[in-house]
Amino acid sequence: MESLEFVVMLDGVPEKAELVDFLASLPDWNQKAREVFEANGNHIELSANDRADEVLATESESGYLHYQWSIESTPLSSVTEEQQVEFARALTAELSRMRAGVRVEVLANFEDLI
């Protein structure tokens, strides 16, 4: 069975507080700690990307690996691939509408379905 975890790489949101507040405001998202949430049967953690680099994020072919934020989603219970794909799509859409200039990339075994 393939892993159904996924990571959303996000760039263009300068302040962590703004991103935390945005995630906390999403419907059916429960904030468990400052940067930890549960939603759609997933444990979700927000963290700063240690490899963030503004130049590489825009000029590199794999620039998304250098985006500012990482949002890791791990299923807490049995979810289907279809459910995870839909959740990743919905989260990506929400984050894309957050503010102008935001860049979002999903990293997952099922990323070709997004």
UniProtKB/TrEMBL annotation:
Recorded superkingdom: Bacteria
UniProt-recorded name of the protein: Uncharacterized protein
